[in-house]
Amino acid sequence: MRNPPPPLERLLSRTTERRGSNTASGRRPNEDRLAKGLGWFSLGLGLPQVLLPSRVNRLIGIEDNSRNRAIMRAVGLRELGGGAGILDRPRPGGFLFARIAGDLMDLVLLRAAFRPSRKGRRRVAAATAAVAGVAVLDIVASARTSRSSGSTTADGGIRVRTAVTVNRPPDEVYGYWHDFENLPNFMAHLESVEVTGDGRSHWTAKAPAGTKVEWDAEIVEDIPDELIAWRSAEGAHVPNSGCVRFTSAPGDAGTEVTVELEYQPPGGAMGAAFSRLFGEEPLQQIKDDLRRFKQVIETGEVVRSDGTPEGTRTQRQFHQDEAQPVG
User: Fold this and answer.
1) Rounded distance, CA 241 to CA 161, Å?
2) Are 15 and 45 in contact (CB under 8 A)?
3) Whole-angstrom distance, CA of residue 272 vs CA of residue 265
4) Which one of 113, 146, 179 terminates a domain?
5) What is the mean pLDDT of residues 236-253?
6) C-alpha of 157 from chain center
7) Is-above-0.85 flag for pTM?
8) How far apart are CA 307 and CA 17, in angstroms?
9) Could you list the residue range(s) of the whole structural domain that residue 134 is in?
10) How far apart are CA 166 and CA 249, in angstroms?
């Protein structure tokens, strides 16, 4: 097999270096410490909010009435649930992302709670500054969780690698994937791929918050039944590169399809963190796409859950019933 093209070669070498510096679990110790620290902070904050809401209200300068006590208890229950989830999960990405949403909610509530007295304003302002500081830590921790499901480049790019075994021969699997106009059949975020000739194609994809992105891509390596490597053309809104490999699985089990991808999310690292907050976690996206690809190749259709018959966006997959063909 020929060597991968230079952009992909750099991608793979950087991925290897990154993996070598990670712990066996794929996460660095300081990342675990930050996440666990936020988990314990949530528990320590949530207990007095639930048990002593009046005292907490007075402490932060909020008027103590039945409505505000009920809100404080609800916020405390949210903190307790989030803290327990972070401490219980080895990869608490979803709970960390939920903390960011909670921080935003708290800031809105504090803004509405400003009181006319000078003492009350000072206390609410101090509480607002504290919540804003914790929100920064939550964003940092949630951004770091991407390293447990891939890795993050120095400039905020996302790099992921995953694979699936398909019960079909390599030539059939390669042939279906190589017809790029088939890709929206199993890639949930793709709206269309138009092949324009000479190894080039035009891609249109869904982005967070209901937006769209478009770019041109070119094939830089194409080995029939083995490898397709690509990169986006200059000026792409979402610069990306990567490859998909097709390898015979042991024991005549079909084909192992391995996807390696690096892309620059709009907004850099901050944009990536908020994308994950709204259910756009990159590795999970690709795993879901490969799962649908396996279903399409093996059964001719996507098998969906009763819990999400309308589709497979990540935030709709926290709970699913037994899967079955859509009929």
Assistant:
1) 12
2) no
3) 6
4) 146
5) 88
6) 13
7) no
8) 40
9) 29-146
10) 9
